[in-house]
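Retry 2 of 3 after timeout on previous attempt. Resubmitting structure tokens to design endpoint.
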């Protein structure tokens, strides 16, 4: 039976709907695929960017660790230097040196001296003894011992004394090794204050003295009456000079005869009086 007109219309409409549906579905599928490809590409790009950032972060972490390691080493080095500097203070030197320092007393004056041999030879300034009839050495243990006068060098203002017994001694440094700026301490009896210690630096060396010899260390370690004849000691515990005088009215301007001249004077005196060198 032939299709009626309305049947044909219905079939045509249905076919049109089917075609439109298929076209629409195809379009949706196509655009969906395009969207998926775009998202996939975006994901890959994001992954690459993320990986790049991870790599960069890892590199930064490694560099940071290396920087921290270097900083830690530098910090440890600075701490070591600070410890070295702190250990270079004079506490141990003072403790070891004090027993070898003595107060020199006469009936008219007072000064300082220091022991240079185990058997009690003492160096001091000759001017301390001027006018005195007897000489005594007072040890760090407050023992007062009469000292024998051995001899003196007027030009260098050095006197050599002797007390009986066994003692700690101070060694003389080599004047050639004296460095401007190195720290030193002066031990003496300023204004009657026994075994006082003052710290300073060597400000200059080979300065001219009252004898016109360029044989004196200039130091800013405080020197006062009573320090004369006392040792100027470096961080190694050796005597670099014998405290001799200060410029009147001036602060931090003291002078000490250099150790090589002390050695020269002591050996000259000992050779003339004892027939032998001592240091």
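Retry 2 succeeded. Sequence:
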């Amino acid at each position: 039976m032939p299709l009626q007109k309305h049947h044909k219309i219905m079939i045509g409409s249905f076919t049109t709907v089917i075609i439109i549906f298929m076209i629409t579905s195809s379009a949706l599928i196509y655009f969906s695929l395009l969207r998926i490809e775009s998202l996939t590409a975006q994901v890959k790009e994001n992954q690459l960017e993320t990986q790049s950032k991870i790599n960069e972060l890892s590199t930064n972490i490694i560099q940071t660790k290396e920087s921290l390691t270097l900083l830690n080493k530098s910090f440890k080095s600075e701490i070591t230097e600070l410890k070295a500097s702190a250990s270079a203070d004079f506490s141990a030197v003072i403790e070891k040196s004090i027993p070898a320092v003595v107060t020199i007393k006469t009936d008219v004056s007072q000064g300082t001296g220091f022991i240079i041999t185990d058997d009690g030879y003492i160096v001091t300034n000759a001017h301390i003894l001027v006018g005195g009839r007897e000489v005594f050495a007072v040890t760090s243990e407050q023992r007062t011992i009469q000292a024998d006068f051995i001899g003196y060098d007027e030009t260098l203002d050095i006197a050599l004394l002797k007390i009986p017994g066994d003692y700690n001694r101070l060694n003389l440094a080599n004047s050639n090794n004296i460095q401007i700026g190195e720290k030193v301490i002066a031990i003496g009896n300023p204004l009657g204050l026994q075994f006082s210690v003052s710290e300073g630096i060597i400000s200059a060396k080979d300065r001219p003295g009252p004898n016109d010899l360029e044989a004196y260390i200039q130091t800013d370690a405080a020197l006062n009456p009573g320090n004369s004849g006392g040792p100027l000691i470096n961080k190694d515990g050796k005597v670099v000079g014998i405290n001799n005088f200060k410029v009147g009215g001036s602060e931090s301007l003291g002078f000490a005869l250099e150790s090589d001249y002390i050695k020269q004077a002591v050996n000259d005196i000992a050779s003339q009086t004892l027939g032998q060198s001592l240091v």
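Attempt log closed. Confidence is low (pLDDT under 50) at residues 78-87.
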